[in-house]
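Dear Dr. V.,

Thank you for agreeing to look over these. As mentioned in my earlier message, I'm a first-year student in the group and I'm still getting used to reading structure tokens, so any feedback on how I've presented them would be very welcome. I ran two proteins. I've put each sequence directly above its structure. The first is here:
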Amino acid sequence: MLDVDRVPQHLIDAAYNNKAACPEWQGWLNEWNEASIEYRKRFASTMNLPYGTRPRAKMDVFPGLDATAPCMVYIHGGYWQLNSKDIFSVLGNGVASYGWSVAMIGYTLAPEASLTEIVDEIDRALDWLAANGSSYNVGPHRIVVGSSAGGLLAALAASHPSVSAAVTVSGIFELAPLRDTFLNKKLQLTDAEIANLSPLRRPPVKKPFTLAVGTHELPLVATNSIAFCQARRRGGAPSSLIEVPGADHFSILDELRCSHSALTDAIVDLARPAPQVM
């Protein structure tokens, strides 16, 4: 009989440890945070708009050129237990150069909030933006963009009636493996959350969806996007997959600062009218 030992815990953890796989991660966060501090000063009156009652249930809105401007709604990553919206403000620069508005959603982190509560907060934030966005030149065309753990939140948020399309960057779409990793110490995922909040287990939302990964992603992180894209296509949902050469889990996000990059172009393309068939 073949005797196969249990996979060592450190190998299970390493499969989802993006920071360990990207030695320059802190440098990227520091750079974005420093640039975001200055950028946010220009929009002081529209920072930290409350959409809920908890301290982190706030949104930053960077108004577009006019009331018809499309909006990028950004949801940050950090495995639902790290980071804040403030760090990533400058990642809206790419679409802002086209006159878009940008909304950065903050949310309560685990363990203070369960993943179920976090998902509910994102839904309430979208409700708030639908009701109040016109006051901030947020037009009706809203594309939700989520990175890493925010990719799961964006995938679930795609079903919100105010969302036109979704883009995920290095997203997570199946929760079950995370329960065996170091990440679950704060998340404490339940069977119901794994079954109900894993986008791979849900019927595909029939809205345009672009998934992006870097070619230097951890294999299981990249596999999440590939598997989710394939599942959506099997379900007849419009989906495309972008692989960014040389990019890792953190450097790929810097593309969002550029007017012309694979990620910015993909987001802008989703707001363009579909060509008419003659």
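The second protein is here, in the same arrangement:
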Amino acid sequence: MHRKVGFMKIGIIGAGNIGGNLTRRLTALGHQVSVANSRGPETLTGLAEETGAHPVTASEAARGAELVVVTVPLSAVPALPKDFLDGAAPGAVVIDTGNYYPQQRDGRIDAIEEGLPESRWTEQQIGHPVIKAFNGTYAQDILDRGTPAGTPGRQALPVAGDDPAAKQTVRNLIDELGFDTVDAGGLDDSWHQQPGTPVYGSQGDVDTIVKALADASPERTAQWRA
């Protein structure tokens, strides 16, 4: 059986591949999900009808939410409403799924080029601690590869963050989605799961993910530098 974490009110900001599939899975598990994108709630009618999620604006997505998923391009993070987390529930957990793609999408972000972990940069931009998860996961895996706890070879996802309780909340939710997790350390260690590292895109089990994290190098490959 998958672990049940209990009913949660969840806000998802970003309705692309990861955000859309998290909306599908989390509503199916019984969570109350509000979802927003940059184009407005009227463009989310299809996803809302499919899932029962509430289409809202980015400013409204976190209202009353116990957990907020920020899953937008890194270049779009500074454009998020400055107060979008003000109405979240006390102690709300924020997941950052973002990745820095300087050549393909985001342009140069100097602080990241100089070594600041991507999620630490996002945390600074939004003014709230984040847990890094789902960033190296294929979106389709969220729909297709979840299995019950104890399944041999169960896919595992790395999770990094500084708050042990917040990190455990995220790990429990991922388990409910059907995946094992590996504690990838604090947010300053989250470079181990950035693009270009061995764990990025891995569909391996716990042992595979532990080894991939250990094998990561802080030197970014040319593909992932501006």
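From my reading of the second output: The longest helix spans residues 164-177. The chain has a mean pLDDT of 95. Does that match how you would interpret it?

Kind regards,
E.
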